[in-house]
Structure formats: structure tokens, C-alpha cells
Design a protein that fits this description.
Blueprint: E1 5-6, H1 10-15, E2 19-23, E3 26-31, H2 36-45, E4 48-51, E5 56-61, H3 65-69, E6 85-91, E7 97-104, E8 113-117, H4 122-132, E9 138-141, E10 145-151, H5 155-160, E11 174-179, E12 182-187, E13 196-202, H6 206-214, E14 220-221, H7 224-233, H8 260-265, H9 271-280, E15 284-291, E16 302-304, E17 310-320, E18 325-333, E19 342-347, E20 350-357
Parallel strand pairs: 1-3, 4-14
Antiparallel strand pairs: 2-3, 4-10, 5-8, 5-9, 6-7, 7-8, 10-13, 11-12, 12-13, 15-18, 15-20, 16-17, 16-19, 17-18, 19-20
Helix pairs in contact: 2-7
Length: 369
């Protein structure tokens, strides 16, 4: 087995009491001293900082790079204004989700277009891009950059202490800022359901940047456990759990991320399968699941009707601190996906009553001026 990699903030995590675990081949903080519930609540009420430097940062540039990238992404990449972000996917020929990504439009048609991809998929994504894009496009893995996420309702106020620029950005917009004398690329984005920012910075300046933000006294370090409970409450997918190559965007309920023109005209890998799923309707649907009582229902739990018919599987599950109750997501067959549908989850041999519910569990609070 290979040794897990470490981000440039590894020593800072240890110095602040981070409990490190192996995640997607990286040693990452699961939690800190106060614990994941306190970190979760800090993000909901103040500002929490997450190390997301394990994520892959990929740049694609070359002749007409934005338009040609549309061969592997169903997003309208060529229509993205500079500094505009979109959520999208890399799809395979069967319409399955190789990875879900954030795309940032470049300064011109030749790019560079930036993709932020999931940590455990970076190598596979690079192979996929190089296989399906022409050799005259340059595909660069920017491992010289670090990425941190400052999330929560007071995140804009924290950054405004250093630079007023980020406060003017709307959700899914990018710009630049100077934080404590350090130049950073800023996007108003994140994966918690809260307002917030992701800060891209040179690896050798990342520690100084984070220490400067922590020195304000208004920022709480948060780990993987809080990040997972936040994204679950927000009804956001985790690749490898709620998305994979066996899942199309249609059944995942993510068709909104494919512009109508691209649904109609296709031209991307897997387009025919996606069009067929849209025309015929999905055989299964991603849904929210609310267990009755306080017993969490974890991923892998089988979902059945009261008569014992297996109709689905839980793909993400845990405790929602904001709700004070367990929450989960999963896939159920068509006809059992309407909110209010009562099912039973098999939790290690124990039947737990659950109800299908709409997503998200906690409303998003993105900033849209």
C-alpha cells in the first residue's frame, strides 16, 4: 500500500490538534479539539476553514480550448465569461459520472480553463482528459497550488478585514484579492451549502495565509467530519458514494447542470445515453431520506417497502447537527421516490423506518447579489 500524501498544511493541522486520517490517499484532519459538531455549528453561524488542498487543480489551454473541452463536459464551457464558475461532470461513453468538477472560465477562448476535481480521482481524470482531448491542448496538473475553503455567514466579513474585493463577488464568481500581503485567487463557492469562498494560493504561502486568517480570532478550523455533515444536510453529492460510473446525471437529479442547448444538441461523451434517459425517464431517483428516531442510517443500507420489496440503497448517511436528527441520501426505484413515501432501512439486521423527503435538508444560503 502506498503512503498517504500530505498537504502543505499538515504540520499546521497537527499543531492545532488535528486528528489525522487517510482520505482518498491523503492524510487529512478528521476533526480538531472542539469536535465535529462544534466545527459544523461554527460554519453555520460564523466562519470555518477547511483544508481542501488535496483536491486536484487542472488547467486546460490551447487552440479553442474552451469549446473543445465541451467534448468531455456537458457544460457550455465556451459560453462561460471569464471568472465564472459552473458545476459539471466528466462523463464516460455510457453517461456515467467519472467525476464531478467545478469549471472556471478562462480569460479567452484558448483558456486556460480551470477544473477543480476530486482528490481520489485526479489521476483517473487526467488520463480521461488526455485520452479524449487532442494532443495540441495542454493539460496541466497545478500541484504548485494549495486550496482552502472559508465557509459560513461571516466569511465575507473576515476577508473584508484584508481586502474588500471578495465581498463584491456573487455565488460562483471568481476574482483576486490580497490577504495579509499574499496574492490569492478567490472564488465565491464551496461545498457546505453556506456562503463562503475558496482561496487558491501558492503552496509555499499557504501556511502564512491560514495563520493570518486564524489570527483574526473569527475563524474555526474544521475537518472532514464537519465537511461531510454540512454537505449532506445541503443535499450535495459525494463522488464514490452518491455519484459514480453507474450513475447518470439524470437519475442523480443533476440535469440542471446541463444547459438546455447541450441537452438538445449533444456533442459530449455519453450524450446519447443522457438524452435517452431524459426521454424515457430515470429508472431510479436520488432522494433525501429521514430516519424515524435518532439511529443514523449509513451508506450501503438496503431500502425496502413494508412488504419486503427491495427498492433502493442508501449512498450517504449520518447525523445532521443542524436538524438534531439523522439524515441520509440514496437511490430508490421510480414510483417510490415521492416525498412522504414510507420505507424501511436495514441497519445491520435491524429495521429502521424512514421516509423519503425532498432535498436539501437545510436550505442553501449562497450569496446572489
Amino acid at each position: 500500500m502506498s503512503t498517504p500524501r500530505r498537504t502543505c498544511l499538515y504540520d499546521l493541522h497537527l499543531a492545532n490538534g488535528g486528528r489525522m486520517v487517510d482520505f482518498a490517499g491523503w492524510e487529512m484532519p478528521l476533526r480538531y479539539g472542539p469536535g465535529p459538531v462544534a466545527e459544523h455549528e461554527a460554519c453555520r453561524s460564523g466562519a470555518a476553514l477547511f483544508d481542501v488542498s488535496h483536491m486536484g487543480i487542472v488547467e486546460i489551454s490551447g487552440p479553442d480550448a474552451a469549446r473543445r473541452l465541451e467534448a468531455v463536459l456537458p457544460a457550455a464551457v465556451s459560453a462561460l465569461a471569464p471568472g465564472t464558475l459552473k458545476y459539471s461532470f466528466l462523463l464516460d461513453a455510457d453517461g456515467g459520472v467519472v467525476d464531478d468538477v467545478i469549471v472556471t472560465g478562462g480569460p479567452g477562448p484558448d483558456g486556460p480553463v480551470t477544473l477543480v476535481v476530486n482528490a481520489g480521482n485526479t489521476v483517473e481524470d487526467l488520463v480521461h482528459l488526455r485520452l479524449h482531448l487532442a494532443d495540441d491542448l495542454t493539460i496541466s496538473h497545478r500541484d504548485d497550488l494549495a486550496l482552502v475553503a472559508l465557509q459560513g455567514p461571516t466569511a465575507a466579513d473576515v476577508l473584508a478585514r484584508f481586502d474588500p474585493g471578495p465581498s463584491a463577488l456573487g455565488f460562483m464568481q471568481a476574482g483576486g484579492a490580497t490577504i495579509g500581503g499574499i496574492e490569492v485567487d478567490v472564488t465565491r463557492s464551496g461545498y457546505t451549502g453556506e456562503d463562503g469562498f475558496e482561496l487558491m494560493v501558492a503552496v509555499d504561502e499557504a501556511v502564512e495565509l491560514v495563520e493570518g486568517l486564524l489570527a483574526t480570532g473569527a475563524v474555526t478550523l474544521a475537518g472532514l467530519a464537519a465537511r461531510d455533515s454540512l454537505r449532506l444536510e445541503a443535499g450535495l453529492c459525494l463522488h464514490g458514494h452518491d455519484l459514480d460510473r453507474t450513475t447518470t446525471p439524470v437519475e442523480a437529479g443533476l440535469v440542471w447542470a446541463i444547459p438546455p442547448g447541450r441537452r438538445r444538441d449533444g456533442g459530449f461523451l455519453g450524450a446519447e445515453v443522457v438524452a435517452r434517459r431524459l426521454a424515457d425517464g430515470p429508472l431510479r431517483h436520488r432522494v433525501g431520506i429521514r430516519p424515524v428516531g435518532r439511529k443514523p442510517v449509513r451508506d450501503g443500507a438496503e431500502l425496502r417497502t413494508a412488504t419486503g420489496e427491495v427498492v433502493g440503497t442508501v449512498t450517504s448517511g449520518g447525523f445532521g447537527p443542524t436538524l438534531g436528527a439523522p439524515v441520509a441520501m440514496g437511490y430508490v426505484t421510480a414510483g417510490h421516490h415521492e416525498p412522504g413515501t414510507e420505507l424501511v432501512a436495514d441497519v445491520r439486521g435491524t429495521d429502521v423506518p424512514v421516509a423519503v423527503t425532498a432535498l436539501p435538508f437545510v436550505p442553501h444560503r449562497y450569496y446572489r447579489p
